[in-house]
Amino acid sequence: MKKRITIMALLVLIILSGCNRNAAEMINDGKVIVNKEEKTMTFYGKLTDRNLEKDTTFQARFYLEGGVIRNALGTDLVYTDEELKSDSDLQNAETYEVQKTVEIKQPEKIDELVKAIKDKEEKAVSIEIINENGRIDDKVIHKVEEK
What we know:
Blueprint: H1 2-17, E1 27-35, E2 40-48, E3 57-64, H2 67-73, E4 77-79, E5 84-85, E6 95-103, H3 110-118, E7 125-131, E8 134-141, E9 144-146
Parallel strand pairs: 1-9
Antiparallel strand pairs: 1-2, 2-6, 3-4, 3-5, 3-7, 7-8
């Protein structure tokens, strides 16, 4: 019985050690800027390549969870336009700013969107760093700036 418990504990430990999705720690900051007059949302992220291998390509995207935000914007993924590449000289970490502006298709729900993003219990918006090998890092965003 003890041997079985030890083996199960070891398996759980191995599985959990492989689940560290934020090992890259690339995301320094993120926010959503809501422009009520123009009826747009701008997704913004500040990233670093500090923990990547040199010349690694990556891209930022914003993952939208929940029916309110998906319906109001008409999508569940917002990709930034550019693919980035980590610095060849790893002695100096580079900082990158990424953003993408999207039209709000249901502007009557702006206040509801802002509330959902700010709610610490919800995961309405996440910034994800990805490349051809999959997700490198991710972070939930709760910061909203209104204009």
